[in-house]
Specification:
The chain has 227 residues and is mainly α. It is built from 11 helices and 3 strands. Strand 2 and strand 3 (199-205) form a beta hairpin.
Length: 227
């Protein structure tokens, strides 16, 4: 690969590799050849989880473990890593097989997210954990952790599930009771049932998922109000 894309990528990463072969492998998709980035991705995924866990543990000291786990899951999911890849201008540095390149692999979120994890793994091998942790903190610099915490708080289905599990009760069931409206503007009505307590709550939304969240929120509120 020409030196320019990798040189520019190292500048954006703010890490200069002692072993250039590591960064070359990190940006190499399996469609390109045998020396691809999947093992580095495996390693980088673990390093990313640890670095993000440390970041959350340090900066969100009064948040319970369950919510920290869900915030971490939001931070390391594919779409978050895809946005980081685009910010790093990673598509121009990827090494893909001809078929994969022609089919749009250079813009495929899964490939780009995997490459971000592979780069973290490569930095870990090249410079150790401290270098990899510093890279992760740079990559997530400016990300509002409180915004992700608010997103977690909106997940009523998870909160209801945990409330029931904490009391050794069966999980709720969700049933689509009605779908109305026009094809381009449908309204879903979903019933959330806790069979053991013979309780049912309804929720409406523009999608089944949204309606389930509303129904779960109503059920959770009802359960918490019970003596």
């Amino acid at each position: 690969m020409p030196a320019e894309p990798l040189e520019a990528l190292q500048q954006r990463l703010q890490h200069r590799f002692s072993d250039r072969r590591l960064i070359e492998r990190a940006v190499t998709h399996r469609s390109f050849g045998a020396e691809h980035n999947e093992r580095l991705e495996f390693l980088g995924d673990a390093v990313l989880e640890l670095a993000i866990s440390t970041l959350l543990f340090t900066h969100m000291q009064h948040v319970p473990e369950g919510e920290l786990s869900r915030v971490r899951a939001l931070l390391v999911r594919q779409d978050s890593l895809h946005r980081i890849a685009l910010r790093l201008q990673l598509p121009e540095a990827l090494r893909l097989g001809e078929g994969e390149a022609r089919s749009g692999g250079r813009e495929r979120p899964s490939i780009l997210a995997d490459a971000v994890e592979a780069l973290i793994g490569a930095v870990f091998l090249d410079g150790g954990y401290d270098s990899a942790r510093a890279l992760v903190e740079r990559l997530f610099e400016g990300v509002r952790l409180d915004a992700h915490l608010q997103e977690v708080a909106k997940d009523a289905k998870t909160a209801l599930q945990e409330w029931l599990q904490g009391r050794r009760m069966q999980l709720p069931s969700y049933t689509v009771a009605h779908v109305g409206g026009q094809a381009h503007h449908q309204v879903f009505e979903v019933h959330c049932e806790v069979a053991e307590l013979q309780l049912i709550e309804k929720g409406q939304g523009a999608s089944r998922r949204a309606a389930e969240q509303v129904a779960a929120g109503a059920m959770l509120q009802r359960l918490k109000a019970r003596p």
